[in-house]
């Protein structure tokens, strides 16, 4: 049984939905009646709209419900084009998809620029104004009476009959789902998932939060627009009622019930709601209540919706089957560190105040390639603030920060990451629902070479980037000794391994400078050994390593150069020997007397 399960799991995951699509395609030819065929058509139209919502809500974490307005834009663009004589469905799809994309961009740019809940509010407003906009252009749209007299669609001059139209809807849905799937399984999809959980982590990995969210929202508009075109040509009549607020609730309920963080969740949710609503003869009266009930059940009973439930059952079955068959992960041999090109990082007179608190005052440091530069000092002395300034999270009040002579102060954090500066966080920032391997591969985003377009269409640059990123992630995992855990959920790792995972992620993009913020705390002896040897190998390979660390003995063993911060200023600078023999540093600021240090009690925490 276990062996059979593993064999089935070895089948590429995309084959299952494709098989379902193939079955749907042939159903009318096997005698499916008109009523059921229509339900499938409406389900697929709803699924396309939900798919767009899932992209922004489930992947990018942005509650943006404007899909119904984009659906309306697609439908009316197609209807009006049709009345102007454009009956060709392919041209209409282009026009309707384009119209929806424009609505997505127009509402997304200000909504996202303003931040916080603005996009949710903008898109909510967008749904409410649909009937008013249609009334304003009553002459063209028919206002509240709707747009009637749409001619049946054609394809390259040929009339499309009912059955062919069904096949067309199914085929278009398969293609759109496949393209969006390509996006979500690409590095851009992983970037969205990271972004949803931690914009700070995302930007430290070179992801532009604004651009990624806008991409998800705007791309999500296109399936909704396509759905609108398909709907307009299905009934040959559209009216504002079809795009009302209650329908927006249905879309949201389908997304939550099916599982917003899954593209197939869109299909599951749409099917449940479409067929569920059909069973309720009173739907028109109680539509909002029914949608609300699905929303509650989906949100409360199982987080992640039905698709999340299925996914977790499959994962459990995988683990059980592997245990029964006796498959153990094979640890990879420790990887060699390739030659690295570090860069000289220099801060000159950097200052930062938070209100009246002068956290940093005229700090000048230099970190050379092929050297470990340590920054130490008591709690609150400004070490993390300095790292945050270097990595672009805080703006400098004064002073400059240069990378190989190029100023990087003032750049946003994702640009600093792309310039070659990578970092770890004091509290490991581990994205949920990613495997260890995916979390490390996500680190490659700073040097991502495949565009969203190339990823969706799987152009050669996508395959090349994927090969390279996978190899880089495998290498980074092997460097920190986590290859055996590659398929485990990243957030299930114990603290020590989480720190090593952060280091691996920060190395995946082959940065020039790596900022390690207290990576040693919480590591056991074996893990500390792995880390120490890794830092040495990185340094020997030419990387610039900046180490913020409380473990003084580790700093003495690893550092080539040490800066001691006190109350936001550099109070000493020198080699480990110089720092160790500086009594003021040892006693006054690190609280280590000559005797405790000799006894090895150098960790001042
Ligand atoms: N975002 C912030 N807003 C206000 N004050 C801050 C902020 N970040 C840091 N500070 C203040 O700046 C000073 C330096 O803090 P910082 O975290 O850089 O010290 P640290 O040396 O890294 O300390 P630790 O070793 O405890 O991490 C502290 O007084 C801290 O309270």
Shape descriptor? elongated
Unique bound compounds: adenosine-5'-triphosphate
Alpha plus pi helix count? 26
Report how far the terminal alpha carbons are from each other. 53 Å
Subcellular location: Cell membrane
Protein name: Branched-chain amino acid ABC transporter ATP-binding protein/permease
GO molecular function, one term: ATP binding
Pfam family, one: ABC_tran
Account of the 3D structure:
Among the domains are: 26-241, no CATH class; 345-430 and 509-598, Rossmann fold (3-Layer(aba) Sandwich), CATH 3.40.50. 59% of the residues lie in helices and 11% in strands. The protein has 605 residues and is of the alpha/beta class. The chain has helices at 2-10, 15-26, 34-59, 67-83, 89-114, 118-136, 138-141, 162-184, 187-197, 199-204, 209-235, 245-258, 263-279, 283-301, 305-325, 383-390, 413-419, 436-442, 452-457, 460-480, 495-508, 525-541, 552-558, 576-580, 583-589, 594-598; strands at residues 154-155, 158-159, 345-354, 357-367, 371-376, 398-403, 406-407, 421-423, 513-517, 544-548, 561-566, 569-574. The protein binds adenosine-5'-triphosphate. Adenosine-5'-triphosphate binds at residues 354, 357, 359, 377, 379-385, 426. It is found in: Cell membrane. Keywords: ATP-binding, Cell membrane, Membrane, Nucleotide-binding, Transmembrane, Transmembrane helix, Transport. This is Branched-chain amino acid ABC transporter ATP-binding protein/permease. Residues 345-592 form the ABC transporter domain.
